[in-house]
Amino acid sequence: MSAWYAMDAAETAERLNVDPSRGLSGAEAVERREEHGANRLPEAPREPRWHAYLRQFQDLLIVTLIGAAIVSFAVTREWETPAIIVLVVILNATIGFVQESRAEASLEALRKMLHTEATVLRGGAAMRLDAADLVPGDVVDLEAGDRVPADGRLVSSSSLEVQESALTGEAEPSAKSAAAVVAQDAPLAERHSAVFMNTTVTRGRARMIVTATGASTEIGQIAGLLQQTKQAPTPLQRQIDTLGKTLALIALAVIAVVFVLGLLRGQPIGDLFTTAVSLAVATVPEGLPAVVAFTLAMGTARLARRGAIVKRLASVETLGSTSQICTDKTGTLTLNQMTAREVYLADRRFTVSGHGYSVEGRIRSTDDDPPDSQTLHVALVAMALCTDAVVRAADDVVGDPTELAMVVLAEKGGVDVAALRRRHPRIAEVPFDSDDKFMATFHREDGRVRCFVKGAPDVLAARADRYLTADGRRPFDAAARAEYAAANGELAEQGLRVLAVGVKDFPALPDDADLKSSLDGIVLMALVGIVDPPRPEASAAIEQCHRAGVQVRMITGDHAVTASAIARELDIPGKAVTGAELDELSDEELARQLPDIGVVARVTPQHKIRIVRALQDSGAVVAMTGDGVNDAPALRRADIGVAMGVTGTEVSKEAATMILTDDNFATVVDAVREGRGIYANIVKFTRFQLSTAFGFVLTFLAASITGLAGGAPFTAVQILFVNLIMDGPPALSLGVDPAGPDVMSRPPRPRDERILTTARLLRILLAGTAMAAGTLAVLAMAPPPVAATMAFVTFVFFQVFNLVNVRNDLRSAFHRDTFSNRSTFVAIGVVLVLLAAMVEWDGLHAFFSVTNLTAAQWLTCAAVGSVILWLGELVKMILRRAGARP
Fold first, then answer.
1. Which of 271, 328, 558, 631 is catalytic?
2. Which regions are flagged for Basic and acidic residues bias (predicted)?
3. pLDDT digits (tens, 9 = 90+) for 769-800
4. Domain of 483?
């Protein structure tokens, strides 16, 4: 590998055969891509599909079950039971394989959505390309916020600083310079003329020549080490794993009792062994951790379709407990499209409807008279001509946002801006200057030269000697000036940005040198109040947050007056403070006042970090939005860092937990809703599985103690059929249950809440007890020839009704939303069809040890199984009346 950093830029360009001012040609780039391959870091070899499938059989319990089938056949010489056990094992392995495959496919889709782009010079034209398409010799432009897409040698730079801590361990950004030439043996941190892949530009801009891509980059050299890092299980997955192990110990103890009592009764040891192992597999939720991961992965895929890319599965858990959202204003709560809201004329005032750059909207007089004022029309003409912005469509605009607002306003007032500009082309102009604070354009009209001026109200007022009314031009005297100043102040207090427009006529175009000085004595025509309006959907999203117990706080670099106006419009409660005022508060005072603060304006990144820390110290789970390089520390500090996908820098996206593809606040709220729904689904699945497991354990324990059915109420094959219900499609359908309508009508759950709360544990025990009692009652009371079959069918019906019961903790199962998840009822239908085939098809009787039932017996089994549904309804009603929350 050449030490490019030890050469000057010219030598680097010569060796790589590229002109830094034009870049590579398309043909050269294709040739080099074929030679060097894609610019991607080395990835660990993908596990072959066949290996992933065979791995499903490595679980200790599965191996034990296969062993049990072999022992059972060796002892009894009967093949039916071992064959069914093997079939169930294969089905279980297939389900696990499909879960893993779908989860991996979802994560791969997310990885593709998070690709990096770079600004590349090809054939003399700048273009945005996927970083994977870069090749050695490519010329790339960098600016603050970019992630460096490959290793490169700088050819030009301006105040460039790059954060290289991931490579060098240096906390401070490294200063870079294209002029630097260092020794060949210089350590990585001292190669000041070079930049490296996956580091981030924190300041300045530069142009570089790509010197290495993919595995040849510095980070590519250590990619093998990165591949060895495994993702740690999430707290939720650890909870599930602990639950499974605890239940396994309990189940194994019960199985030991069943086995010993069976031996004492003289039952064949082969049958006992097969039954014991089958019961172990059925009662131990060995697939629960995998299903949780599957549910989280499916949830991230749904979030991505909604416009929220969650980078880490663990974050989905956190989303559901978010209690504070600290959001930026511009582009997140607002459209980031300046819009005229009010027009002030000397004799009338007008309000303007519509949003953003769409010309849909109306100009309406505040006194309800038609807005056909000639004075208004002249003012709109001034706004159309004294601007450079172009509006072709709402999503196809060019120019300054404030000017775009004025052009759209003119269109709403009936002015055909394009035609007007063709009729009255600009013949001269005074461009906007930050010192003068105005712009003027000159046009020919009716044999004279008319000049239109727009700018700061106080600047135009100082140059005005008259103002325009419906009755003509009047002197701009003290009274008029006072009225004008009052109107300007009133618009500003509403958080509007105020601009003034004026006009002056000349018999001929002044000399170029006199253009600016000729603008004294203008005629003031209008004041225009402009604002970046709230997104139409933001208000409803914030209202959802209020109902959900989530506090929304606006944190912005904008002025307090403007921010407060938007907050009032969006119904964000609380007072407004500035960053300077925060600096005057101690940490204790800040913690005390934060609940009453709704807007923090003129903030720095340090203010954002301090706010996040204070909220977290109070026990809140905080989501923070940001888009700039300097927002990265606050995004990392927050529980959920949210970066903007459209306007956000690569640094902010790298630091964030979640990326919004539409920069829309409503998408954050959608993500919170989805997070709550995902967590609720995991709770449902866990309740369902553990209820079934406890029902099994209690049924077998009671039967063994009482001697009912010889201590074995179900055969091994029947046990494994029910296990398919626990781990198969019916239970999995709970993992994709849509979020209920009440999911955003309750407070956020505590971040440390356990899946098995005391209330949920009691309901699991109650459900399991009902299953055992009902099944044993049928077994004891039904006619002996059909008792075992009826008991088995009853237990299956218990699972079917419990599947409906657990879909909501408090809402009745007879609510219309119960039927919102079609997959649940399709899965139930499949189970009932299989059950009916087992019982009514004579050819399966020997396999499943069942016999035919009459219609009355079927109804009896269903009626007993439905007890769990009615019992669940009674518990829900009691909890609702007690004011319990889900």
1. 328
2. 29-44
3. 999 999 999 999 999 899 999 999 999 999 99
4. 339-531
